[in-house]
């Protein structure tokens, strides 16, 4: 209704008149009775906010409102369907206005229900209005979709993969391809892994985190053999099967340690590839334009610079 007021340029004093002219059946009967009881001058002197509360009290019992508030409180994106989430969020927010003291509370709740794949970026953007939050969230999903369509996603790792169940393979980079095939949502640089400098690719499109078989010899941790396999597609199209992992490795950013598990695979251009799952777990945000990565650490935010900057600084 507020949108109609805005589009039609209804002045405040005429808003109640316009709304009540649209009433039908029981609503018009209720309104005429109320107007008769308090006089026409009184009812048309009220503002839209007062009328909206009267309508809510009349036609939306508190028990039903409570149910809607619970639904809104638990509302989250299903899969990657941000459009449906946004529509339902807006519908519920109209009926559950008492949950939000101001728009910033509504924005915070909306962003909190977004999927991990874009949550960090939207949080970093710090939208000041619902319109900005929705616009940026949709832009982020579009970017992820455009990249993912060319980068097969590893389905849930399971033992059926050994029998060729059709799971899409994870994708990694090999010599000669990494420099030309990198998506914009990546940061590359040289950082410490278990006290050895490693060339690392942080990639929001990678399904798993990997370490090259060559570099793994520098890590003083005994690899573990899994009882199931993962199919991995190299950038040249070759698909290989891997089942060896090094658990408990330590990435070091600005003297801050981060735990990571790495699957062993043949890599050429990089020693390590860090996946979307690791980035999401640590709420890391990649700034594509500046080629930096922001990682929350307590009350601090670590700012990790890629190849275009230094080895890092923090704020």
Automatic annotation (TrEMBL):
<dbReference type="InterPro" id="IPR021109">
    <property type="entry name" value="Peptidase_aspartic_dom_sf"/>
</dbReference>
<dbReference type="InterPro" id="IPR001969">
    <property type="entry name" value="Aspartic_peptidase_AS"/>
</dbReference>
<dbReference type="Pfam" id="PF03732">
    <property type="entry name" value="Retrotrans_gag"/>
</dbReference>
<keyword id="KW-0695">RNA-directed DNA polymerase</keyword>
<dbReference type="Pfam" id="PF08284">
    <property type="entry name" value="RVP_2"/>
</dbReference>
<dbReference type="GO" id="GO:0006508">
    <property type="term" value="P:proteolysis"/>
</dbReference>
<keyword id="KW-0548">Nucleotidyltransferase</keyword>
<dbReference type="GO" id="GO:0004190">
    <property type="term" value="F:aspartic-type endopeptidase activity"/>
</dbReference>
<dbReference type="InterPro" id="IPR005162">
    <property type="entry name" value="Retrotrans_gag_dom"/>
</dbReference>
<dbReference type="GO" id="GO:0003964">
    <property type="term" value="F:RNA-directed DNA polymerase activity"/>
</dbReference>
<keyword id="KW-0808">Transferase</keyword>
<protein>
    <submittedName>
        <fullName>Reverse transcriptase domain-containing protein</fullName>
    </submittedName>
</protein>
<dbReference type="InterPro" id="IPR032567">
    <property type="entry name" value="RTL1-rel"/>
</dbReference>
<feature type="domain" description="Retrotransposon gag">
    <location>
        <begin position="18"/>
        <end position="115"/>
    </location>
</feature>
